[in-house]
Each structure stands twice: as structure tokens, then as C-alpha cells.
Design goal:
The chain is of the alpha+beta class. The protein is built from four helices and 24 strands. It has helices at residues 2-33, 98-126, 132-157, 205-208; strands at 36-39, 41-43, 45-49, 53-61, 64-67, 73-78, 85-86, 91-95, 160-162, 167-172, 179-180, 187-191, 197-203, 216-221, 224-236, 247-254, 265-271, 276-282, 287-290, 293-300, 303-315, 318-323, 330-332, 344-347.
């Protein structure tokens, strides 16, 4: 009997403890539900704004060229080296002209022979010995032979490479004694003037639609970390690159007297002149930001209401909102960090 009594006593104590805890929790819940959190409101602003476009690319020359021979052959002489400054019209390389000169000589001899034959047949035609058809055939043959001579002389002239502009030899792809195929680049050259440098960047289609020629950009070069360069959009491609899917834009660079070279890495911040009207709120009102997704609180029937947003961009401590604020005129700033959905709030000044 004594053992049974002890067990009953323990059960009663445990039951009282559970009941007491339950009442305490219920009391706490009632206290939390009745709490009113003081907050401050701010108006949602609507203004014309534009999101800067971030892009990156490489420096290149506005006038760059890959120079090659018109005809194939053995490279006899290369007159310049990589990195050398060149002037327009300067001889850079030449082929061995033995075969090409022979072709020109052959074409010249052919023209001379047909001219001689035509004179003889013309004299015979006047004496009624040759026919008109023979004269006409030789006249046609002479015209064809002269055109063949022009082709041979043209190829002879383009068996040497001359600089197309003042600039620098960026790269030399072949050496003396190698066989150069028709049209295969031998040199990569670019202009060296301070006004001949551009930044080539790739931009997405949604950004391409917002750009116009003449829009300004700020350029940061890794080679000059303490200098901010200015640039202007001078070219916008009308088709996307098939490999990357991006549209290419060229930004003409103001070098500010700095020494620039092809291939320098550049970061661009382009400011489109085409603006869009977006609502904005202070950054302090944003909670739980994740990428371009975030939340704010507004007041509905005296309680906090959580609103999901898509952020377009942030500028000067204001978040410009792409979507989510339709019909919302005010959001909570001070006190938003302590709120949950449905919490009671009181607006204070």
C-alpha cells in the first residue's frame, strides 16, 4: 500500500507541474499577441530612374588589321618585329617573287605575241587574204591576254605587305622561309593614336534595348587601378554573338594621356540615357534580401503585412523596385526588423 501511495503522489505532482507550465505558456502567448510594436512609415517614391549597366571587356584598337598576302608563296623577308612602331605605307614583308615574276613575264609575252598576230592578220584582211572572223577572234584574244596581264601584275603588287596605318605590330604569326597561304594573316597590327582605343564589351538583350549611341560610361582598368577613365558608346551591334548570346558594344576611350595597349582588361559602368519610371524605397525598409529578391512590411488593418519584392537595382541608399509595390503607398522603416506577419503595430513620429 505504501508503494502505491508514493506512485500516486508522484503522478499528482507531475500533473500539477504540467498544468502549471501549460498555463504559463498560454499566459506568455497572450502577452506576445497583445504586444504593439512602434514603427515608422515612409512614402513609396516614384521617379524616372535608370539602372547603370555593368559590363567587362578588353581594350582594342579602333583601326586594327590582320595583314596577309594576296597570293601564296615562300616568305622571303620580314622587315619588322613584334612591338615595333610602323608608319602607313611601310614595307613589312615580301614573298619570294621568282614564280610570280615569271607569271607576269609570261603574261606580257603573250600580249606581245597576240598583238603581233593581230597586226599581221589585219594586213592580210585588207588584202582580202584573211577573214573578218580571224581578225575578230584575235582582237578578243588580245583583250583576254591584257586582262590576264593585269591580274598577274595585281598579284605581283600584293605579294608584299605594306602597313595600312600608323601603328604597332602587335603580333607576328609567321617567319621567313615559311609557306604563306592565300589570305592567312602574317601580322596583327593596330593604330597607336590616343584617339584610336575602344573597349569592346558584351551586353544582354534587356540592356541593349536601353542603350543609345553617345551614352556615357566610366571605365576602370586593372592596369591603372587609381584612374577612372571616361568613354562614349560609339557602336552597337545589330545582332547577338552566336557563341555567347550577347550584343557587342564599343566604347571609345579617353586615355587621359595614359599608355594603353591591346588586350588590357576593362570594367565598364554604362549610364543609359533611356530612363524608366520605377518605385523606390529606402534601403532601411528592406529585409531578408537575397539577390534581387527581398521583402518589406506595410500596414493593413493595424497589423504588419509582409510584401515580396523584386529589386531592379540600388542607388544612393534607395532600392528601386521592379515589381511588388503595386498599390502600396507606404512601407515600414524603423521597427521592421522586429516584425512578423500579422504583428500589431503603432505608427509613431
Amino acid at each position: 500500500m505504501k508503494t502505491i501511495y508514493k506512485l500516486s503522489l508522484y503522478a499528482l505532482v507531475a500533473l500539477l507541474m504540467v498544468t502549471s507550465c501549460g498555463k504559463k505558456k498560454a499566459h506568455n502567448k497572450t502577452t506576445l499577441d497583445d504586444t504593439v510594436i512602434p514603427v515608422k512609415l515612409v512614402d513609396v517614391a516614384l521617379a524616372n530612374a535608370t539602372e547603370p549597366i555593368k559590363a567587362s571587356g578588353l581594350i582594342s584598337s579602333l583601326h586594327e588589321a590582320r595583314l596577309s598576302f594576296k597570293t601564296g608563296g615562300i616568305i622571303e623577308k620580314i622587315w619588322v618585329r613584334e612591338g615595333q612602331t610602323i608608319r602607313k605605307g611601310q614595307l613589312l614583308a615580301s614573298l619570294n617573287l621568282t614564280e610570280i615574276n615569271a607569271q607576269v613575264q609570261q603574261a606580257q609575252e603573250n600580249v606581245i605575241k597576240i598583238e603581233r598576230d593581230l597586226r599581221r592578220v589585219s594586213n592580210l584582211y585588207r588584202d582580202s587574204v584573211a577573214t573578218l572572223e580571224q581578225v575578230q577572234n584575235l582582237t578578243t584574244s588580245l583583250s583576254v591576254a591584257k586582262q590576264g596581264l593585269q591580274i598577274a601584275q595585281y598579284n605581283q603588287g600584293y605579294s608584299k605587305i605594306y602597313a595600312s596605318t600608323n601603328g604597332v605590330v602587335v603580333k607576328k604569326m609567321m617567319n621567313e622561309g615559311e609557306y604563306a597561304n592565300v589570305g592567312v594573316p602574317i601580322f596583327f597590327v593596330n593604330a597607336a593614336s590616343a584617339n584610336d582605343w575602344v573597349v569592346k564589351v558584351g551586353i544582354a538583350d534587356k540592356d541593349w534595348t536601353r542603350l543609345k549611341l553617345g551614352d556615357h560610361a566610366s571605365i576602370q582598368l586593372d592596369a591603372f587601378p587609381d584612374t577612372q577613365f571616361q568613354a562614349i558608346v560609339t557602336t552597337l551591334s545589330q545582332g547577338a554573338d552566336q557563341a555567347s548570346g550577347l550584343y557587342q558594344a564599343e566604347l571609345k576611350l579617353n586615355t587621359q594621356g595614359k599608355k594603353i595597349a591591346t588586350g588590357l582588361f576593362a570594367k565598364a559602368l554604362i549610364n543609359p540615357s533611356i530612363k524608366q519610371q520605377l518605385p523606390s524605397v529606402p534601403v532601411d525598409a528592406i529585409i531578408e534580401g537575397n539577390g534581387d529578391e527581398a521583402f518589406v512590411y506595410t500596414i493593413e488593418n493595424g497589423k504588419a503585412k509582409r510584401i515580396a519584392l523584386v529589386i531592379a537595382y540600388i542607388n544612393n541608399q534607395r532600392a528601386f523596385v521592379q515589381s511588388g509595390l503595386t498599390g502600396i503607398t507606404q512601407v515600414i522603416t524603423d521597427g521592421s526588423a522586429y516584425l512578423v506577419e500579422g504583428a500589431k503595430v503603432k505608427v509613431v513620429q
